[in-house]
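Internal QA ticket QA-208
Title: Verify multi-chain structure generation after dependency bump
Assignee: T.L.

Test input:
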Amino acid sequence: AQSVTQLDSQVPVFEEAPVELRCNYSSSVSVYLFWYVQYPNQGLQLLLKYLSGSTLVKGINGFEAEFNKSQTSFHLRKPSVHISDTAEYFCAVSDPGTYKYIFGTGTRLKVLA
Amino acid sequence: DGGITQSPKYLFRKEGQNVTLSCEQNLNHDAMYWYRQDPGQGLRLIYYSQIVNDFQKGDIAEGYSVSREKKESFPLTVTSAQKNPTAFYLCASKFPGTGRNEKLFFGSGTQLSVL
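Actual output:
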């Protein structure tokens, strides 16, 4: 069965500092990997995704993530955060053959002035 | 505008009552999903449907039921068997197949509370 682990429930960081949000997954088959963001009082939207090919994927708002198969990780990074990046970030995995999407427990990113 | 509409935005349930959450999409998506969001627990999959008249249980289906009689609609019923129904419920849908368009589209959610 697939599962996703986001070890950090909250990450405080000062504005303009770099940030990394960690995501590890477990699956016995090849998977698709995603990061979604939920801004306060809004629905979720896709930040970026890895389906195949290059292991470094770039998304919206300056975020990027690197797929590491040997470490079963898909960590999200941004070199310089803004106050507007304050949100909850969810890592997700799907099995291409089943349509089933599993989400992690989320990481609350709080950007401090 | 195309999108996913969830209603109502807020819903209150009395003890022993069944309530139904509505989810409608006009995106022509085949697959639809229901998730439950609790603080600190992320999104947990309740049910999903790949196609009309077919649906599968997710990880926390007990106490919930769904139907998929139309492509556009995927209502979720929270039954009296669900002892802890207070949560934020999110509906999502997806393009058919995989590839460049692979992603979930989410509605704005329904907050269910117990009176």
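Spot checks passed. The CA atoms of residues 70 and 99 of chain A lie 24 Å apart.
Status: verified.
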